[in-house]
């Protein structure tokens, strides 16, 4: 087959990549700028970073964010994995169609609608007006679908005879699950957990309706600060978040590619 | 066999129960509240249950807000697809062994928090920001031009944020297209342009529709970008819902707007999926 190169299209595509990454690069660059107000390079400084560690409100928001993320990741991964496995076994029929709809709906619901629905639910049914737990419950509700879909995609390709073989060899259902099924779907579970973490760590819109006094998360803290303007401290926090996220993704990719390699060459 | 059925049910039950209690029931509550009235303390009362909140949403002074939201979402969708299609095509046709890496690079900004990405555009577009700084430095302008708090900034910010959601489905669709079909059209003397409009584009229409859906829905629900990049005078439906719930406390009216938004979204999604299925089968 003829593979004609198209230099104009290549140039265009590279420009799109620049468009995608330039704002983040500029953000990081200016976290090292020794000027409080302007877009003028006044020299390299690290002084915005130590200041962050003295910022009580910021550290508290980070604490709330991590607490919510941990609760959400653990619950979402368990519920979503079981759901994905169950769906993979439900072949077709009305039950499977209804379950599919219930799982897809949260993914197409505008975030603002999901935010207000949970606010009304907690406020009118439980007279609750926002807390760390309320945020975590909301995060679990919108993350389950993602984990379920990722796990199902891997589970449908599983050979059911693997688990049957384990049962024939005398394994209890529990042993068969933990020693056969779970290791086989582990990469999908790990990917799902990572996505659940990112969804929880980043969420602003749904959280904003379910946070109460003292349960402000990091994205909410940043949002309330930047409504009043641009400051280098926010650049510094953002840089730390961006770098941490990038490292997490790199590590998880490394882990999952090593797993695949081990599987390809057994022994 | 019976044991398997029970086990499958125990797998499905906890997750589905969670979604019913914390997703389906709250959505139903939105509808119930939308029929009520606000009391003087910002609570909800059900004295005269009716559709008055929906009638309020249809009043002439509210129409411009709806049009404004639709305009931002539509422009974002059009720009996202226009920018995404060529690069999705490039990755699929010329990506070679690096396809996966190129796709991961497209998705990387998505892993950076939305509020941080929007903030990055604030630092670029503001009066003493990057763009004005460069233009002034080059002597193109004497005084800063207003970029932040404009419609342009809102559409730019949303397009930037939702671009990955347009690139992925378009890539999948283009990658599935058999290049032999395009080659056949060329052999039959179609110009490159004619082959694109009559072969490539119609056959990748499912991808275009999916991309439109994945950018339009989040654009309608996003109040962060209109707020931060559009400024206080930019009013959208999502922003009004936010105000009605968090500051002015008129939950029934806010619930009615939210219910209209979700109904529109579901009707739009179902209609789009119908078209997609027909395209794929027919």
Characterise this structure.
The complex is a heterodimer of chains A (267) and B (282). Chain A has 267 residues and is mainly α. Chain A is 76% helix and 0% strand. Chain A is globular, with a radius of gyration of 23 Å. The relative contact order of chain A is 0.13. The two termini of chain B are 39 Å apart. Chain B has one domain (61-281): MetI-like fold, CATH 1.10.3720.10. In chain B, a hairpin with a 5-residue loop joins strand 1 and strand 2 (44-45). In chain B, helix 3 packs across helix 10 (205-221), helix 5 (114-125) runs parallel beside helix 11 and helix 8 (179-187) packs antiparallel against helix 9. Chain B has helices at 2-34, 52-57, 63-94, 99-107, 114-125, 130-137, 151-176, 179-187, 192-203, 205-221, 224-230, 237-246, 251-281, and strands at 37-38, 44-45. Chain B is built from 13 helices and 2 strands; from the N terminus they run αββαααααααααααα. Chains A and B meet through helix 1, helix 3, helix 4, helix 5 and helix 6 of A and helix 1, helix 3, helix 4, helix 5 and helix 6 of B.
Brief descriptors of the model:
heterodimer, A: 2 domains, B: 282 residues, mainly alpha, MetI-like fold, 13 helices, globular
How does the SSE layout of this entry go?
The complex is a heterodimer of chains A (267) and B (282).
Chain A: H1 7-29, H2 48-52, H3 56-89, H4 94-108, H5 111-126, H6 132-155, H7 160-168, H8 173-202, H9 205-210, H10 218-226, H11 232-264
Helix pairs in contact in A: 3-6, 3-8, 3-10, 4-6, 6-8, 7-8, 8-11
Chain B: H1 2-34, E1 37-38, E2 44-45, H2 52-57, H3 63-94, H4 99-107, H5 114-125, H6 130-137, H7 151-176, H8 179-187, H9 192-203, H10 205-221, H11 224-230, H12 237-246, H13 251-281
Antiparallel strand pairs in B: 1-2
